[in-house]
Specification:
Layout: H1 2-17, H2 19-27, H3 35-59, H4 65-82, H5 102-114, H6 126-140, E1 145-146, H7 155-161, E2 163-166, E3 172-176, E4 181-185, E5 190-193, H8 198-210, H9 240-259, H10 262-273, H11 276-283, H12 288-313, H13 326-357, H14 365-377, H15 386-406, H16 408-421, H17 425-443, H18 448-463, H19 466-492, E6 497-500, E7 505-508, H20 514-540, H21 544-562, H22 581-597, H23 612-638, H24 646-655, E8 661-665, H25 668-680, E9 685-688, H26 696-708, E10 712-717, E11 729-744, E12 755-769, E13 780-783, E14 792-796, E15 800-802, E16 805-819, E17 827-834, E18 844-850, E19 853-860, E20 865-871, E21 883-890, E22 909-917
Parallel strand pairs: 8-9, 8-10
Antiparallel strand pairs: 1-5, 2-3, 3-4, 4-5, 6-7, 10-12, 11-12, 13-22, 14-16, 15-16, 16-21, 16-22, 17-20, 17-22, 18-19, 18-21
Helix pairs in contact: 2-3, 2-4, 3-4, 3-8, 3-13, 5-9, 5-10, 6-8, 6-25, 9-10, 9-11, 9-12, 10-22, 11-23, 12-13, 12-21, 13-15, 14-17, 14-21, 15-16, 19-20, 20-21, 20-22, 20-23, 22-23
Length: 923
Amino acid sequence: MIIAAILRTTTFCLLLFFLPGYITLRALKVKGLGWPEGLFLSVFSSILLTSWLGLLLAELALFSLWSLLLLLLIYSVGMAVVFKVRPTWGGIPRPRLDIGYLLLVIIVVAGLLFFRPFESILGTTDAGVYLGMGVNIARTGAIRARDPLLTDLTGSIGKALLYSYRFPSGSELMRFFGDGVRIWDMEQGMFFSQQNHLYQVWIAIFYSIFGMRVGINPFAPLDLLGILGHFSSTPMLLYATPLFGLLGVIALYFVGKALFDERIGLLASFLLAINIVQMWFSRWAMSEALTQFLVLGALYCFALYVKTAHRVTTHLLPPDRHIRRPGLDCQIQAERGGQQRCFGLLAGFGLGLAVLSRADGIFLIVPVALYFVYLRFTRKLRSQHLYFFVPFAVLLLHWLIHSLLFSRTQFSAISRALPHFSSLVPLAIGGAVLIAALLILALLLPSDRQIRRLKQLRALVRRANFGKWLRPAVAFLIFLLALYAYFIRPSTADPQMVYYHPAGGTIRTYNEENLVRLGWYVTPLGLLLALGGLVAMILKETDEGVIFFLGVAMLYGFVFIHSALVNPLHIYWIRRYITVVIPSIMLFISYGLYQISNLQSPISNLQFQISTSLRGTLPIILGIALAASFLQTSLALGSQMPYQGAVWQVSRLAEQLSDRAAVIFESPLIGDQFALPLTYLYNKDAFVLQGQGLDNEPFSDLVERWRDRGREVFYIAYDGSTRVRSDDYFFSPVGEVALDIPLPETSFDHLPQGMVHHTYDLEIYKIEPAWKREEATYPFSLDVGRFDYGYLMSGFYAREGSSGGWYRWTGETAEILVPWAPAGKSLLLSLTLGSQRPAGVEPAKVSLYLNELLLDRFDLGNEFKTLTIVVPPDSITGPQAKTACLRLETNTWIPAEAGLGDVRELGVILDRIELELEVRSLP
């Protein structure tokens, strides 16, 4: 069975991650690549094709693993037949001492650091939404989800069970499961996530293959340090993100190698692998790792694309050749042309999918548009460039259609929030207008008059020696901006307060400290080396691939250093820098260290020259110091495992619910976290009670409609204060579950220093019709603090525990419902309660009422005691009464006023209530 599962999974992975790309490279006659480059490009192109086809199937509501595999197989076979691709086996490459094999060491290090994914299935973060809605795509085949129970949430019920917030502009947005899932059509019960859906498609793929199964650790007997133990306890679904995080590290190596030098690529990928940012977001189920891989892979292909384009257009035979061989020359041109087509397609396709994968991918339109304008104005644009621009334009059109059909609410929310979050809006509008104008001019360029004017302009630029001072000017400007952002802006800019809807109010953005805070994650030394490498790159490099990379890196860096556009909670804040900025910084650092090792004195006549030993030793010392500082932060934070055990704990909660369960959570405090995983990972429809309660009649109608649909209705309580009740239904205890979710501390002005354990003691009730309830029988006992939902009406605080069990503090007035069926007999009411007030505080004076009848008044000391009171049979006159309201009134005290820190107004501690019929002994 295990062998069959391994073979099946291996076949799936070959079709998803390798075969389509390998066939594509062979069909387009890409030759001259080493086996590492060929393997990487096969994987990259396969992931591009799998991503796009999977997204198309999900948009058409046709997604399934088998349909996706069938399309990939048809593509691979079709390409092989049309282009006559024959499989070849070049044999295993001979091992040799080569610096490139250090990449294998980096892969092992990154794998050990990354492949411990967080069990971030809870619905309070984007990760939980990604996972839940990705599983929905796997189960339903569609991006838009449908829930028939949602159609019943109309009127006051809808307002009570659906989450909505109002923007400062006055417009209202209604959401489902808290923040992240938005309602599209209430009448059809349709909704979907506000995020981009490409990453969700990959979650759907992994879920379709593995489900919620955990991995098998074949090295468990040898894993003495427990490094691989996590693999055998974590669902394989969560390993999609570590895989893309690892591929991003590998992609950065190839980018550095293609643009500069293999050593630069190796150092950059190593620094990225040990950095806490890459480590953290390769464990967290977020879309940044996928987008990073797409962007870096596309940049690598773009670097190869411009190099092969240059070789094709400049290929001439040497003038001293006496024998010309035009056939061979044409063959070389054809092979290089095939390579150019392939690399152009992959680069354009990769950047286009990056736009589809995240909202900030839209920034990639700018460098692509400027590259087109550059080619057009310099008259370098050739038909070969269409292989790059056409796939990007096609996917840009796809992104526009996808946004209109599936992500329109996201853009409406961004349009509302952006004016409150950034002063970049006027600059962005001006930049967009300028780029649009340049594009229009470039498209209208071909007239003879415009060509003559353009030639005159280029001649003027050459005479003015514009290029000689442009690079130093740009480098100097970057240097000044960095100094301003790090030293001047934090102390001179006014703190910006903005409205942020998830926080429910205004927050401080800390944008004036963005570069300083970036230094928390890459260290000040890293920022300094990166700045030096960036300046050197601007001054020295002229390759089109490098210039394009610089354009992408500086655009993302400028935007997010100016305004991070994100909640300033750490480590969540750094997520905007993952896709482009952090990898670019690593490449700048590596380039800067490489330039130091080749440093030469600009004045040849000086006696003092930088010694060879210093040039060789200094970058090594700086590199070691930087790597050590990275590891210090990474190991400290990397040992933290947020959400550890969440999957197992939520599974225990789901096991206590029936297959046809419809669940109502007591409050957003617990519901926003657990409703979404219960619904999508465990197929239990869950809703969250947003307000303080529901009217009796609408609640009864809702329960009745759900029961008519064949659902069993459950209620999950946390603090136990009765928010919903009805005489038509009662709450039957099912079970209880204690949850312990570790999360990093909430920190805005420093990195999280440790974990905070959030504990939830939940009680599960089944809502049953009243006719199933037995008549009130005595003795009746209520353990206050345990399965007391439906009895405590008001005036109680959340339950607290001690070695003796659970109890609750009351406020000034507390009301409890008790069953009433005395049958003409007196009742004995027993109360176990106490006060525990310190010396100097007035003792508790308690008045006890049954409905409006005063039963007793008494004083309480510090000790717990049980009071027994006789309740006469005529206490309640209504003959049909099934319940009675027991009310305690007492004077309150505030512990904070006595130096105890608690600011609540406390009355008494109530531990148990008992009722029994009075039995009189015979005379």
